[in-house]
Amino acid sequence: MPAESEERAGDGGVETQEQRGASSVATNGDHLVELYKEMVFIRVFEEACSRGFKKGKVGGYMHVYIGQEAIATGFLDAYREGDRIITAYRDHPHVLLLGSDPKAVMAELYGKGTGMVKGKGGSMHLFDVEKGFMGGYGIVGGHIPLGVGMAYALRYEETDHIVQTYLGDGSMSIGYFHEAVNLAGLWGKDGMCPCLFILENNQYGMGTSVERTTAMTDLVRKFDAYGVENEKVDGMDLEAVLEVAHRAAERVRETGKPYAVEALTYRTVPHGAADFLEKYRTKDEINKWRKRDPIGLLEHKLLENGLLDQDAVEEIRNETKQTMSEVTRFAEESDEPPLEELYTDVYAGEDEYMGEK
Amino acid sequence: MPEMTYRQALKTAMAEEMERDESVLLMGEDIGVYGGTHLITDGLIDRFGPKRVIDTPIAEGGFTGAAIGMAMLGLKPIVEMMTWSFSFLASDQIIQTAAKVRYFSGGQVEVPLVVRGPNGGGVQLSAQHTHSMENLYGHFPGLKVVSPVTPADVKGMMLTAIRDPNPVVFLEAGALYGTKGEVPDGDGGVPFGKARVAREGTDVSLISYGRQVNLCLRVADRLEEEDGVSAEVIDVRSIRPLDEDTIVESVKKTHRAVAVQEQWRLFGVASETASIIQEKAFDYLDAPVIRVSGAEVPAPYARNLEVAAFPNEQQVANAARRTLYMEEK
Ligand SMILES: Cc1ncc(C[n+]2csc(CCOP(=O)(O)OP(=O)(O)O)c2C)c(N)n1
Prior knowledge:
The structure holds two protein chains of two kinds.
Chain A lengths: L23 H4 L1 H26 L14 H8 L7 E4 L4 H6 L4 H8 L23 E4 L7 H13 L6 E6 L6 H14 L6 E7 L2 E2 L2 E2 L20 E5 L3 H18 L3 E6 L18 H8 L3 H11 L5 H24 L24
Parallel strand pairs in A: 1-2, 1-3, 3-4, 4-8, 7-8
Antiparallel strand pairs in A: 5-6
Chain B lengths: L2 E3 H15 L3 E5 L15 H5 L4 E3 L4 H13 L3 E5 L10 H8 L2 H4 L9 E6 L14 H5 L5 E3 L4 H13 L4 E6 L6 E3 L13 E4 L4 E5 L2 H17 L3 E5 L2 E3 L3 H11 L2 E8 L4 H12 L9 E5 L8 H7 L3 H11 L6
Parallel strand pairs in B: 2-3, 2-4, 4-5, 5-7, 6-7, 10-11, 10-13, 13-14
Antiparallel strand pairs in B: 1-8, 6-12, 9-11
Helix pairs in contact in B: 1-7, 3-4, 8-12, 9-10
């Protein structure tokens, strides 16, 4: 498969910035191999939970990240302890990449008491506050102001931590986006909003393409309206993402001002695990983008540069699958949450629960 | 005890707690330089600076969400709604995030947030600026909702609200900002979930909260004078948690109850009160519980129409008389 493809979906293709560090394959070879393994890991996790969903073991809504792996992998490589991460409901990879226990994530999807949030949130509401993961949220755009407020709090407490706020193209139409980014720009004038916005433009919100939601499809420029500087990156190219991620994170950390990066990507699977019809796009389009699969592109590079060989690739896949079957087994074998858990965690403090049981 | 207005009591509580606790900050539209639409926060920006008294753009959902984010990282923001009527735009954040995030994170976060502002009518603000929100927010587990009426309770409950690790919806009687009362010195909070017996009596319980408590007190005087009836007035003051015991105890004593609310009749706090009484004190009742509520219309503007839209002394007094099988007047 070609490392550089001309192909873009539809006519909404956004130009990508060609300023990747050309020599980084050579200099950071080992690190890239590590990140490749992480990308394979989150892909295999998504495949495993999708099977769980099809078998009826995962309930509710579940959204997977297949096709978009380079973005979270690249940006979270710039994570420093004390930073906070917040995203919407497509949240499995973010928490996994922060080093959370995949068993706890899978068990959560399976609705088990060993789940990351004790079986109370499910796929859309993963949290690992200790690891800096401030949650997955289900109201499109509703988490964006939270990320902005968290960034303010980090500066109020005089730390140099930052918040990475992930958002989808679809969320840019809701008022929250505009209200929150306006606040971020404003507070950033005083160095009080170290928030890095990562726009995961997978070109669709459910079944509605970007072109069908806004007349101004150069999405990242919407940040201009609020004085938030921004740029674009090819979200399929891990190396390009890495370069921007580190640079942008450091800039935000240093200045206390928000910054936005649009990563152009494509979800090569349905929006949610429950919809299969995909009437809104063509097989051709999906196949075109599959050729730019971020894991495939990286793998190709690593093979070309001799950092991996075919055997190593096989081994990584097999080992990951092995691990994942243990992860899945743990989720399957765990017990459901005890019924007493129904009434805990409603309130903090002494009056943990105030209602009638 | 010093005497102060409702407005001063609010400001005193917030300012004193800001002195004590660096993590407390204020946010809202025009609360800083302008001094606050209702002058609750007047002068605080000079005292605490713009990092702690944040003038926000007009974006209720956005800045309430940002405050929730701050609270999740340990700050204690107090957000002003210029009027609770604007909180419909923030209600998604208050209900969908603040109330629930602790639960859906499996207890990993707390949201020590206060959202406050004037609630209810009485100052001719008409339809879009006049609402009583207690039943709306009182419905949701995860929130605490209070509606104090005396300056003493305003100060004490605000202190409790700020210190509470949960999101608190603080409903102020906007029409009473200028009213005075004695307020104790010191940093003592008034606990939530405890109703106040505003006046003791033996013949009928008038149960209410917020501005209507003052109405009930006037009615109680009148009933005593005109009818020789001894009415007890219960100020519920905390909507969630609701002190069911005090309500039930009062009714066990008086055997009769009138529940008064400014909001519309159906699905309100008065309905809830009536329901609790029939569940827990049915055998003590000598008459059906009567609700007195606002007229089923959007809040009107003209003075006389607005007065007619909210419960008045005669309605409440007659309701009490009905529970006593006395002639209405
Ligand atoms: C306020 C709100 N409206 C509608 C929905 C239903 N919904 C869930 S995901 C989604 C699409 C969002 O697209 P985008 O932000 O681009 O994220 P993506 O799913 O592509 O990652 C919609 C409309 C919702 N969850 N919240």
